[in-house]
């Protein structure tokens, strides 16, 4: 770390000679690996961009010259060079920087970014802003080949071609998305690599953009030459840079998928430190689909957008490849594609994450819901979390709740999940979304078989207070039930609603007789969610309603304990509120 | 109409000889013009596709062979040939078919479609469904050059290239979007037209797709030859077809923008029949922006996605072209581009329609809201309407309401709108959306100047009943107020909330003292909207709350009177409900 110890900002990079720049790459790689091996994080993406990041800060003058990192999961070397190296070297300061760029951390970052394919649009905006203000400076976007399949990147390239001023789009081509790339584009990108950029089929030129190919993306001097050649260029240009994902760490090169993002691992052996073989709720769904296909149901399609590992899909991919579809990073297409399949007699099962599903909002509405097509949408990661601001799992409920014709279900255990999936695979009313419960897989004996009409599961029939505890928060509801019973000597009603979007009006009406207070618990953002609809239902009655869930806000790496306290999502806090109202 | 009189389905098209096919084109064109001139509708798009539609049904066997029409605003000739000609010929049956494809109307339509850029994804789904079922048949998508700029079309082309079986993508290149095209793609499409498809820069080939160019897209025999050459092809192919928007009707050819969609007009002279020079609310905003720019504020950018005419933007485009941005059909890019501008010191003002804004949901959240960037979003067409199912204006409130950090304002007249725009242009907290009122422009004397803190406008301070009448429904609220005063002899409180997303908690708390009932009126879908949040606010109190607005449902060309009755949105119905609860 001798060289890195001298680097406190981009200006220090400019002082290095060639030998020192080479040594700096070694130090940065070691710093990245130090943190991700102990803390978990994006491994391969950051190892692949070490050299081009050094070259960028050697050639350009940040922040006058600006770079926008797509997803920004490959920005660790940039962070290390821009005053944040201690967060990679010293374990007790790991948490002082996030896993993505943040303007709160550094003047060298311009946006909080965590979703793909936005960088070129943002850079075109920065560049046009520069032009309108008649200022100078370079604007660059760095985007991975995997992110290029997202339609927004295409919209932005098409617009970038009309900019008429400086813009440098660095396509970081490491031949990988999170998993393998998918799409015709990747055949022609390979042709470009094989021909050193000379192949006729060139996406960028076909959009009217200037283009250059750089083969040695993991060589600092090559990248310096490439950047110097385009610095202060007077029009948009695409630099197609060939890099290696995981470069310089053999384990990461050998298994690029595993090392895209990895929990803590042993640096020497590459063994995971917290390995777990527990079954997951997505695994429950995937195993059922595999059993269906194996039993002869050939009219099934399992679809995801570049994150098969998040949903235990690799096993299905391997055993039933004809029924497996990774559309690449193209959430919008995944949903419209599913609409086409459903219209032609295939039952699509989409796997999406709560925080990426919004990328297909209009397709959920316009293609699936308007047309009442019976697709199944498995929603993962839908819960209050302590993750990054761009990866909050609380907005799926209000989002889906706002769209007609989609039924959104909230199982609380393995059997309910399976029963809902089985029903969703045969019903013909329209799209059905199912929210995977958070936490470990739990079992119970029975589940309703039919979800065509809303029917809440009344687990304890009581009086005075009714607890509607949705999805994973059923366990919280049970704790509240127990405390009310023990402490207040009342026998409340405990309900597992099962249905997020559909009201069991019979049940809700019935509660009016023996209850004066309904409390709702949901593992999501309250505004526009489940509880508010319940409150509105009781608006014209004497029933009081208290909604518990997350405040409508973006949180950024806030510990769960703090969130639970902030949102009054502890049994103590809930019981204290109940006491005020009975 | 001699030939058309013999055509009752695609099978009849196949019986025609060349001369008759030529005559059929004349008849179809006359039928289209008959309806759109009397009824309003898409003119140019349908006149341009007459010949290729005849050729399609001559060569292919619908519905075994399937065609998906992008946006489907060019599907009138297809409707005329598939059993629905009377709805174009006879005025009393005009309303029996919608302006878009509909599987409810015909087995030759597969989806309800009204948004752009979805057709290729849907067709890939249909094709893959065919393959999984081991069936035969051709699947085609027809997409205009304008719609190609939408990212979803790119995602779909990229996926289509990997299909490995029959798919025919017809690119209907009429050199126009709704307005002029924008983007580098359109330069290279022009090169392809000029070189009869031989130019090196070819988007489709750059995605690994087979490609053919057909110059004479308005010649039936050329199109028959082109379709016969690809019928039953064993892999995906793009047919790049050059057509003329408005072909065969001189007025429409001469002004392609005006005739994209036109209200009723005189067929002979081309004069509009219901021309109006009334000021619109979007005009109020645009005129203010023009005045700002003229006064030296060069840090403004007015942005829209291919629908400048809907927002009175052509005047700004003409006078201040440096501050005008039509990004093409690329709603997602428009928002991320605005985020980049805002970050670099420019104040972007986005103009979007309630029903297209969902196409940028994740960009609103991830790029603008997470980063708290002070963009201004003007939302048009946000109201209950009697339009098509894909053009409902009621979901913008729940959608924006679900996203943190966006302030959504609801002016009720010109002065409030202007005051909000002026404030939004200088505030620095984050994105501000403003919902244009429905109906004619009305004026009042004053408006609040500052919208940083939620403050409701209490127009009448009374007791017992408080009416919170949002946006355009303030007039409905006034009627309810008057009836309650006259009929029930009570003095209710009448409030213009102004803020959709932010609660004026002081005001709401204060109402508890003298009121027992709050009624909310909103011109949008209730679920997840303004009223439900108010109901939740009062959930723990004795206040009763009644929400009036649209039911969460898709409606399709339902008359306003029927909707008003269905949703109890008449003064009579509201007062009747109030009577039950006081």
Automatic annotation (TrEMBL), chains A, B:
InterPro entries noted in UniProt: Dxylulose-5-P_synthase (IPR005477), THDP-binding (IPR029061), Transketo_C/PFOR_II (IPR009014), Transketolase-like_Pyr-bd (IPR005475), Transketolase_C (IPR033248), Transketolase_CS (IPR049557)
Keyword hit for Transferase: yes
Transmembrane segments: none
Names of required cofactors: thiamine diphosphate; Mg(2+)
Description of how the protein assembles with itself and partners: Homodimer.
Family note: Belongs to the transketolase family. DXPS subfamily.
Name under which the protein is recorded: 1-deoxy-D-xylulose-5-phosphate synthase
Protein species of origin: Candidatus Enterococcus moelleringii
